[in-house]
Amino acid sequence: MSGSGSSPIGSGRPPRKRQFPFGLVMLAFGLGLGFYGGVAATKRAMISPAWVQHIFGISMPAAAVQSPAPLAAPTTPPSTPAVAAPGGSPAVPGTGANSGEANGSSAPEKSSNKRPPDTKDLEGTWTVTDSLSKDGGPTSTMTSAYIFRSDNTGEFDANGTKLYDFHWTPSGDEISVDFDGEGPDANQPWNAKLKWSLNDDRTVLTLVPSSGKDPRSFVYSLGPGVYHRKGI
């Protein structure tokens, strides 16, 4: 009966087999993959815009700005030596009567008045002096004067004495003059048309009868008159 309730010596649980550490390998693989991914992400973030770098907490140092090299100072041309003037004092270059020509410039010319003449330029007193001799007698002088007013009235004078009043009407390069008094034809109103022209400074007036006769040709048998503005 002894020993019937106990197991034989040496009997028990079979020994355990050691399992492969698969979990440890996966952990190591995960760590390696994460390390590689972090390095790759960091490299990409370093060349990414600033807002991406800010998300990854990367602070890139500002690139140093290279300052441009200083410009070389302009060289000063040698000054022209002063030449002594005949009086002993040194002459200053660029002065004198011919300095403008030496520098390739000249004094500005006065601009002439190129405005075409207007009949308003006729307003005023115009005189011409002629020499007269009757039948070979002694020579005398006679000064004729046309006075044109702005209201288109006027008068013709001889040696300061008024001979005729008139009204004048501009018509292009002519003026039509209606004289008061008896003219060449006693049965017709006395009218003469005169071509007029002025010089550039409006001081010389030329009157040439184109039809009819003015007092100068009617009374003194004289041709076209060249009148000068009185007071010039």
Short summary of the structure?
The protein has about 230 residues and is an alpha+beta fold.
Distance N to C terminus: 177 Å
The averaged pLDDT comes out at 75
Please state the second-level CATH architecture of the domain at 119-229: Beta Barrel
Secondary-structure element pattern, one letter each: HHEEHEEEEEEEHE
The largest β sheet comes out as: 8 strands, antiparallel, barrel
CATH topology of the domain at 119-229: Lipocalin
Q: Taking strands numbered 1, 2, ... along the chain, how are they ordered across the largest sheet?
A: 3-4-5-6-7-8-9-10
Category from helices, strands and their pairing: alpha+beta
Report strand %: 25-35%
Report the strand count: 10
Number of helices: 4
**What percent of residues adopt helix (DSSP H or I)?**
10-25%
* Poorly predicted segments: 91-105
What is the CA-based Rg, rounded?
59 Å
Q: Estimate the global geometry from the Cα principal axes.
A: rod-shaped
Under CATH at level 1, the class of the domain at 119-229 stands as: Mainly Beta
What does this 3D model show about the protein?
The chain is rod-shaped, with a radius of gyration of 59 Å. With 232 residues, it is of the alpha+beta class. It has 4 helices and 10 strands, in the order ααββαβββββββαβ. The strands form 2 sheets. It has an 8-stranded antiparallel beta barrel. A two-stranded antiparallel sheet has the order 1-2. 11% of the residues are buried. The longest helix has 25 residues, at 22-46. Residues 91-105 have low confidence and may be disordered.
